[in-house]
Structures are given as C-alpha cells and as structure tokens.
Amino acid sequence: MRYRFPDNFWWGSACSALQTEGDSLNGGKSQTTWDVWFERQPGRFHQGIGPAETSTFYRHWKQDIALLKQLKHNSFRTSLSWAR
C-alpha cells in the first residue's frame, strides 16, 4: 500500500527548553530544580551532561531553524523555560 501525504501536511519538529536551550544559568535565568538536581547528582544525567550543556539552541537558534528549513519543515514547536 502506498500513501501520499496531502500537499498541506505539516512536517515539523518539537523540542523542550530543558533538552535544547543550554546556557541554563545565563541570559537572566535563575536556577531551576533541574539545575539543582544536576549540581547535586551529575551522575544521574546521561554522560554527565546537564542543563547548561545541551544542544545550545539558545545560542544557535538561527542556524537550527535554517537546518529545519533545509529539511523542508513547515512547522516547529518549542518551549521556553519559565525561569527565563
């Protein structure tokens, strides 16, 4: 069976602030429970990478959006940290 997506289908990506922002304690942001947890138990985080060192979308958002456009995405959902 072959399926053809409609021409108006929304192709996109989604991300959450914690997973992508990076710079978790810069830009006027205050510490969150995630920052405190990482400070106290860094071994609980995959490869010891905490909220400050993620994919750095916070600093590279223009380049990241350009990459999404290259992939023909026409939608993108993100979140902002309430601590910002």
TrEMBL record:
Looking at its record, which EC class is this enzyme?
hydrolase
The answer to whether keyword Hydrolase applies is: yes
Kindly state which keywords UniProt assigns to this record, in alphabetical order.
Glycosidase, Hydrolase
Q: Which GO terms describe its molecular function?
A: beta-glucosidase activity
Gene3D superfamilies, alphabetized:
Glycosidases
- GO biological process entries: carbohydrate metabolic process
> What InterPro entries does UniProt report for this protein, alphabetically?
GH, Glyco_hydro_1
Pfam families in the record:
Glyco_hydro_1
Which residues, by range, are in coiled-coil regions? none
Enzyme Commission number(s) of this protein: 3.2.1.21
Q: Report if keyword DNA-binding is assigned.
A: no
What is the name of this protein? Beta-glucosidase
